Every structure is written in structure tokens, then in C-alpha cells.
Structures
1.
Amino acid sequence: MTALDATLPALREALEHPAVWTPENEAFAEPAFRQALQAGQSATPEARSAALAALAGCLSTAEPYQAARLALLMGTFVEYGAHPGPAAPALLDRLAAVCRSPGPDAARHARSVRFLGLAAMAMLCRDRELRQHARSAGLPAAVADVPIAEAGFVAEVLAMVDDLPLLVLHLERPEGFRVRVDAVSNVFHLTTLLAAAVPAWCDGDPVDPAVAAAARGEHPPTAGMHDHARFHLFDHSGVDRHPGSTLWGEAQAASIPVFEGERIVLVGAPLFGSRTWDAGFFPYLHEALRSAVRMEGPVTPEERERWLERLRAWLAARS
């Protein structure tokens, strides 16, 4: 038995009772929480992961504020290297339930949401599959419009796209790629990541490495940091390069339309002169969250041309 294991019975006992709480109390003021935290600080990642698994069931049975304190403890262990494992879905379920049922004490409720939200961010920002689970389980609706900052952070992370497949075809060059994008918020964000992933399409004007790193979430954007267009992005109707088919930079990446089962992004020469955007379009919500354009493979020139022919035929039929 590890030192952390030895603290779990007292913690479970504490969780069976409502917390003695005032707005000034520290999250881990009670001995059972403080001792578990101290033992967890020196435990191995494996021991911390095992503790999360052992305590997961308590997230649904403890009263809301106790469950929130437990969640914060779990989130702290995840920041130390624990794997969320079975605790993560239970924690997200409790966050949703607490957001939906505020209860009579507004201050206690707000702190509960804050602790649950912080723990959720520690887990969601490290795990693409967990973010997908949270979306399918209805967490975005539960945290929407909750006027507490941590609920807003969760909502913003879940508003991004993950594992989104795109068929990217260049209109001038006989090239294209199949890609998947993770933790991408808007089309400006996508444009910078795509330019960094395919420097050959930048015509000798590569993305500044610091800007590319900020777009990936490796560090926060700095004051005055910006990027600019090296090419123009159209949706599938832009095969004739009509400006009305532009993928507007402020739009969510999830809004890219589908054509015959594919989300198609067409890349062409720049339009609208020197188009720039502030690096504030690269949300920096947590140091563990990473945004990416993952290259799955090239599209052959023949496949690219077949797609462009289908798009031209579709566009002509609409005229």
C-alpha cells in the first residue's frame, strides 16, 4: 500500500458528509483532503492514476461541493501526471449536473462549478477523445450561458473542432492533402496552422516560428503578434475563385460545409490584398491544450482533378 492509498479511507469518509464551508475556506482545508494532496505530491503517476480510479464513484454520490473538491484534487493529480481514466467521464457528468441545478446557495454553487471546471480543463485539454465524449454527452449545452468563468473555459474548448477530416485541394498547384484538425477554433486559426504545415504553399514567406508555436498552443500569443494571408481559403463552391465562396476567418472551423460526404477546403492565390489577423484568434486556454493540422497523406494529381471536375459540374448545374 502506498502512502496515497493510506489516505483514501479517511477521504471517502469525509466525502460522505456535507462540507463545513464558508466562502473563505481553502479547498483542501480539511485534514482528509490536505493529507491526500500531500501524499499525492510525492506519489508516482501510477499511484495517482490508481487513486483517481478508486475514487471515481464518489464523484456521483458526494454532495455537490464535496464532489467539486474531490474533482479539484483529481485535476491536481492529473496536472502532476496521473491518467484521468474512469474518473474523467464521471467528473464531466457531475459538472453538467451541477451546472443544471444551481441550488439555493449561489456562492457555494459558484465555487463548486469553479472547482469542477478547473478539473475538467485539466483533463479535457490533454485528451482529444475525452473532448469528443464530452460533446456527445451534452456537456456543451450544460455549461452554455453559465456565468462562471471556468464553465466558459470548458464551453470554449468544446466549441473547437477535434479530429475533423478535411480534403484540402490547391486550385493552382496540382496538389492536395487529406488532413485532420484538432483543437481548432476558427478559420484564421486553421489558415495559420495550414500554412505552417505546408510551407511550400507560402511562396517563400513561411510562418514566423513564434506565431506557428502560438497557433499550436505551445505558448500564449504575445502583444502585437499577428499573421497574414499567404493564400486564400474557399469552401467547395469556390472552384471558380468567387469571393462569395470565401471561408471567412472569424467563422468557426465547424462551419466548413460538406460536399458529397467531404468537408472540402480549396486553396487559391490571395484575395483582398494584405489580409492580416491578430493572434488573439489562437485561443490559449490551458498550457496542455495543443492545436494541430495532422497530415494524413497527399492527394494524387489525378484525384485532385477528379474532385475539381465534380465541383465544376456541380457549380455549372446550379447556374
Note: The chain has a mean pLDDT of 95.
2.
Amino acid sequence: MTLISDSDLSALMQEMRETAETEILPRFLGVTADGIRAKTAPDDIVTDADLGSERRLSAALAARFPEALIVGEEAVAADPLLLERLGDAELAVIIDPVDGTWNFAHGVPLFGMILAIVAGGETVAGLIHYPVTGDFLVARPGGGAWHVDRGGKSTRLAVAVAAPVEEMQGFVPLRMFSAEEQAKFAPRILRFTRTTTWRCSAFEYRMVATGAMTFLLNADLKPWDHAAGELIHREAGGYGALLSGERYRPTMTKGRLLLAPDVATWEAIRQELCGE
């Protein structure tokens, strides 16, 4: 399995910072209707910042990892067959150039950049950058998960401690589930202290990896949303699996991923949500 060195990690963080400073932040609060296009639905949008930052990151990553398959969210939107190549790639880099595009386009500072390195079907590095605050969450297998502030200071992350169901807080994007699932989940989420959605995987993973929120249920398994965050959460001490019980892999595109502080808490949440 390919190992990502400290120098690789530092270079990736620097490239993400520079891309945010040149392609993303100058456009924040300046997005106009001319700079927004719909993709699969009226609220599934792409902006000039998404396209510009993915182009820059893709070029830099291709230079650093010339043997790697580059899988960007916007590239897949243009060529869906690109995603099918991920499962066969010995080395791949997955990019979400602006995660939380709807927030970004409407002046809400809850957006981030997500990058994952995948080798042999396993995530070997996960990085999430927050352009507005200039900090990162980063992880490599076996090395723990870390918050790196704007000045470079690192603090180890830890998920929430176990708690009774009625004291748990979590993310459930109810609108993204099927009508049947919405009917099942809607009354059940009232058993938790609070459930919400922030329309941004980068920040939702931040909240569960830092222990601010207990759990996260995902309705869509796009690898640019989850490959990095799942590793970061796991390295922060958390447990995640599909509701079926199957272990998550970044090559998966179907299923419902649930993350919790530990196996027992995961099972308690699954039983509350699914009634099993």
C-alpha cells in the first residue's frame, strides 16, 4: 500500500491553502447568478470556484502523483465513467474542490475542500481544509486524526463519549432519503436530543470527529464527500459502517453510512433509526 509521507502531507496542505486563496476566497460573497450553474437538480449547483479550484488541484496532484487516477467531483459530473475506474486504480486522488457549494454560493461560510488519497481501494490520507478559518483536519491510517490550525499547531482529535440515545445529537439529511425512508426516519429522529443537516460534509465530519456531535448518517456515498472524512473519524476513535453492517470502502457508491463514537453506540443508533 502506498504510504503518504510527512512531506507529501505538507505539500498537499500547502496546495490546498494556495488554491483556496486564489480560486475560492476571492469569489466568496461575490457569487452572481452568472457564476452558478445547476447540475442534477436546482439545488445541486456548481460555481466558477468549484471549476477553477478543481482544475488547479488536479494539475498539481497529477504532477506530484503522475501514476494516480485523479477523480474530481466536477470531472465526474462531466464524465460519469471516470468514477467506475476508481475500483481498479492502484492509486487515486479524490477531490471535492468546494464541498458545501450551495452554502458557498449563498454567502454561508460553511464550506470546505476535501481531498483523499486512495491506494488499493483503501484511504491512506484524508485532508479537509476550511478556507474561511484556514485550518485543517488530517489523518493517515494508524497515525490518529489531527486538527491543524492556521499557524500549524496540531491538536489530536477525539470523538464524543458514549451517551444515552436521548442525549445524542447528530446529522440526518432527511430530504436526501427516499420517501419510504423519510417516513420511517422522521418520527424516530425525535428520540434524539437534536438532529440537523448543514449541507456540507466537510463541516459535518468536523463536528463528529471533534466530539461536538455524536453521530452522522449519510444518504449518498459519493467518494469525494466521505473517503477523507470516514478515515478522519475512524482515526479520531470512531466507528462507522453501512446500516447493513458492511464496512465502508471509498469505492462504494450505494448504501447508508452511519458513524458513531463506538460499536455499541452505532448499534443503539441503528436500532433507533431502523427499529431493528
Note: The first helix runs from residue 6 to 24.
